[in-house]
Amino acid sequence: MATASYSKTVFLTGASSGIGLAVVKRLCAAGWEVWGTARNVSRLPVLTGFHPVALDLNDPENIAAAFSAAAVESGGFDVLINNAGDVINAPLEALVQNGLRAQMETLFFGPLELIRLALPEMRRRKAGMIINVTSLAVQFPIPFNSGYSAAKAALSSCSECLRLELTGTPIRLVDVQPGDVSTEILNRTKELNLPECAPYEPMLAHARAAEADKMKAACAPEKVARLIQKLLNAGNPPPRVAVGNFFEARLATTASRLLSRGMVERLQRWMYGLK
Ligand SMILES: NC(=O)c1ccc[n+]([C@@H]2O[C@H](COP(=O)([O-])OP(=O)(O)OC[C@H]3O[C@@H](n4cnc5c(N)ncnc54)[C@H](OP(=O)(O)O)[C@@H]3O)[C@@H](O)[C@H]2O)c1
Fold first, then answer.
1. How far is the CA of 44 from the centre of ligand 1 (A)?
2. Residues of the chain predicted below pLDDT 70
3. Is the N or the C terminus of the chain less surrounded, counting Cβ atoms within 10 Å?
4. Ligand 1 midpoint to CA 75 (Å)
5. Alpha-carbon distance 22 to 221, whole Å?
6. Where do runs of H (alpha helix) occur along the chain?
7. What is the pTM of this model?
8. How far apart are CA 86 and CA 44, in angstroms?
């Protein structure tokens, strides 16, 4: 990738752990100024060049207020990284009334609102880079994580539309799609156990166990952070990049292009122990 030089003020959501924290450490070490968010700022790191921001993606008024205050403090952002995320695990039938909207706020409407807030300044500066951390779940939707998979797919699809709409501008946008990454996300996954879940047993239990098992081969968050730093320095970054262990990021993504959707679905049933 050819290199470009942004002058590096970054607004990054989800800086308190996992991928976001790994990105913060790399960028601050490289001398960038990062405004990083968490709902509870006491979870955020203390580092030279790091500026803590309290932000809850499920609170639209808070998003606007937090971003605007940080933009004033920083003088405007060169880079927006939509990284924060969480998972609510349940059969779709239970999720519809118990978390689907929350997942869409956290993983879709919140990030889009930040993009809406960040774009005018990027246009004014005639420079800017947006990174949306979605997921390989866009290509391989995860059973019982339907809200998560759908919200990530929606953000990925909007990313493609926006890239087209930004034609002729110097603003770049990359959809980063991680596979399993060894972070707090699995332990923090909210597993719903409502009466509506009962008809899905024992498949629900099998799928949850398979997800935990898959995580044993997860890559380190530093691998994703390295990729994000490389993308930030690239003059002409690719629209979409998968990252993770070799099986997920290379073999599975290639297989999904070559195999029929029916075959992919059979593979997923086998992987998640669904029968
Ligand atoms: N780990 C994986 O296997 C994996 C795979 C594919 C994609 N991803 C994506 O990568 C991104 C980072 O995840 P991670 O694995 O690094 O998870 P993580 O270690 O659990 O970190 C998640 C971050 O998001 C923040 N967050 C969660 N819900 C939020 C909300 N409603 N409002 C504001 N901030 C919120 C958390 O902050 P506080 O809780 O401190 O507020 C935390 O900083 C997510 O978008 C995730 O979907 C992860």
1. 13
2. 1-7
3. C
4. 26
5. 6
6. 18-29, 60-74, 92-95, 100-104, 110-125, 146-165, 185-188, 203-214, 221-232, 246, 253-258, 261-271
7. 0.96
8. 17
Distance of CA 30 to the CA centre of its chain: 22
Which residue among 11, 12, 13, 19 is best mutated to probe the pocket of ligand 1, counting the most ligand atoms within 8 A of its Cβ? Answer: 19
pLDDT at 256: 87
Task: Look at residue 5 in the predicted model and tell me its pLDDT.
Answer: 46
pLDDT for position 7: 57
d(CA 89, CA 208) in angstroms, rounded, equals 9
Neighbours of 182 (CB within 10 A): 16
Does the CB atom of residue 181 touch ligand 1 within 6 A?
Answer: yes
Residue with tokens 């999720």: 95
Q: What is the DSSP letter of 43?
A: G
Instruction: Delineate the domains of the chain, giving CATH numbers in brackets.
Output: 9-271 (3.40.50.720)
DSSP string, 135-168: -GGGTSPPTTBHHHHHHHHHHHHHHHHHHHHTTT
Q: Cα dihedral angle (74, 4, 81, 140), rounded to 10 degrees?
A: 180
Q: Whose CA is closest to atom 17 on ligand 1?
A: 185
pLDDT value, residue 200: 98
Residues in the chain: 275
Say how many CA atoms lie within 13 Å of 102 toward its Cβ: 12
| Pocket of ligand 1 contains residue 250 by CB under 6 Å | no
Distance CA 90, CA 197 (A): 7
Ligand 1 within 6 A of CB of 36: no
Assess whether the C-beta atom of 56 lies below 6 angstroms from ligand 1: yes
Cα 234 to ligand 1 centre (Å): 25
